[in-house]
DNA sequence: AACATTTGACCTGG
DNA sequence: CCAGGTCAAATGTT
């Protein structure tokens, strides 16, 4: 049984970072390039599909490179600054989890599947509502565990499409000790699943906040959400956004993110007992292997914020991805 | 019937 | 040996 499960994702897929060092300038250059490409893409939207595809793939590879640079930089920083594990209950997951070298080859042997994948941590507030945040993915709970030093058990979830598509994404959800309405969500691995059919259906039937098109997603991303992103050292960082252009959207401008199955009320990273259908919001943690560079980032997501600006154009999208913000990481 | 959750047992790394 | 992570049978839900 366990042996039949494919653990092969696109983990560690070809982000070639050029060593650590100060890469801020390089990243800015790369991102500026991306920005320009996106502008071109916008111009050609509705025009030649081939050209759009070409631009998309260029954006994709540039993004990969940039993330590689950011990743290597962040990891360096994280390694250098050792974290005191004193922080009651919360300190453990990221710092104490002995994630193996993320820069190394992803697989050594099938036995060593544990902890091979990178992880990202988010703090999710459910302020008032029952559910923290909808993340647009289908999760299936496969375990729960009392964690030493923590008041609340940790839930273990994996992508619903794990078996059907071999999607390696998993997440762990745990209430924080300080505030029961706040959850720590740790994601392992990115989604490799694509749920085209369901996504298309969802586009027609699902409520706007669940529509798998980029704009809808970005709207929902903002809908009632503030995303404060910071590194472990407390540096400001770019908001996590789904920019992957790896999967060409369904014609007419779908979401570039894979695995956008219509979310179910059970998607919630909380005990199903407390989950119901009136989720407060949606957000996109990270969708692709390319976005795994945020290993050192901790995102703080609050579900109680006022309605956000709509993202109606790629320009709006670009506004959300402020290159300067990213650049400031390296200042 | 199919799918999801619960939960105790098992496995693994430190 | 212990804590964390995963498995899988039992159970619940739709």
Automatic annotation (TrEMBL):
<protein>
    <submittedName>
        <fullName>WRKY74-superfamily of TFs having WRKY and zinc finger domains</fullName>
    </submittedName>
</protein>
<dbReference type="InterPro" id="IPR036576">
    <property type="entry name" value="WRKY_dom_sf"/>
</dbReference>
<dbReference type="GO" id="GO:0009751">
    <property type="term" value="P:response to salicylic acid"/>
</dbReference>
<feature type="compositionally biased region" description="Polar residues">
    <location>
        <begin position="94"/>
        <end position="109"/>
    </location>
</feature>
<dbReference type="GO" id="GO:0010150">
    <property type="term" value="P:leaf senescence"/>
</dbReference>
<dbReference type="InterPro" id="IPR044810">
    <property type="entry name" value="WRKY_plant"/>
</dbReference>
<dbReference type="InterPro" id="IPR003657">
    <property type="entry name" value="WRKY_dom"/>
</dbReference>
<keyword id="KW-0805">Transcription regulation</keyword>
<dbReference type="GO" id="GO:0005634">
    <property type="term" value="C:nucleus"/>
</dbReference>
<dbReference type="Pfam" id="PF03106">
    <property type="entry name" value="WRKY"/>
</dbReference>
<dbReference type="GO" id="GO:0000976">
    <property type="term" value="F:transcription cis-regulatory region binding"/>
</dbReference>
<dbReference type="GO" id="GO:0006355">
    <property type="term" value="P:regulation of DNA-templated transcription"/>
</dbReference>
<keyword id="KW-0804">Transcription</keyword>
<comment type="similarity">
    <text>Belongs to the WRKY group III family.</text>
</comment>
<dbReference type="GO" id="GO:0042542">
    <property type="term" value="P:response to hydrogen peroxide"/>
</dbReference>
<keyword id="KW-0539">Nucleus</keyword>
<feature type="domain" description="WRKY">
    <location>
        <begin position="128"/>
        <end position="191"/>
    </location>
</feature>
<dbReference type="GO" id="GO:0010193">
    <property type="term" value="P:response to ozone"/>
</dbReference>
<feature type="region of interest" description="Disordered">
    <location>
        <begin position="77"/>
        <end position="140"/>
    </location>
</feature>
<keyword id="KW-0238">DNA-binding</keyword>
<dbReference type="GO" id="GO:0003700">
    <property type="term" value="F:DNA-binding transcription factor activity"/>
</dbReference>
